[in-house]
Specification:
Elements: H1 6-23, H2 30-36, H3 41-46, H4 52-76, H5 81-107, H6 111-134
Helix pairs in contact: 1-4, 1-6, 2-6, 4-6, 5-6
């Protein structure tokens, strides 16, 4: 049976949720992300209000991601931060990068939008394995 540290999963969930909020905030990539989507950042910010339901769903997404990665980390015996980084990069290339590339190719997602999303996913795919692998 695989042992998953639920406290580490919870902490990783909260950390990546906050980092995701920061990633798409005016402090980092909000303006280029909006412009790449063809939206005026100032106009979007004027009417900006994040619905509570979307925040709950995003928090649940972060939890599921953290739990699944923690499960793989435990199964594979990832036990230090360096191996966790390697594992996270492989996960990032194998899943979000491949999926985002498909959305650029087939759904006409602007490359800049996909790149901003890919950066967010890289952070998540690095932070979660590091937290759950070094937390004993």
């Amino acid at each position: 049976m695989v042992h998953v540290n639920y406290l580490a999963v919870l902490v990783a969930t909260i950390v990546v949720f906050v980092l995701g909020w920061l990633w798409y905030s005016p402090f980092l990539f909000y303006k280029p992300w909006m412009r790449a989507r063809g939206v005026d950042p100032a106009v979007a910010m004027a009417g900006a209000k994040m619905p509570a339901g979307k925040l709950v769903i995003e928090l649940l997404r972060c939890f599921v991601l953290a739990y699944v990665i923690a499960h793989f980390v435990a199964l594979l015996g990832v036990s230090n931060w360096l191996i966790a980084v390697h594992f996270g990069v492989l996960l990032w290339i194998g899943f979000p990068v491949i999926l985002l590339t498909g959305s650029v190719l087939w759904d006409n997602t602007p490359v800049k939008v996909a790149a901003i999303h890919a950066g967010d996913w890289l952070v998540k795919m690095l932070v979660i394995p590091i937290i759950v692998s070094v937390w004993h």
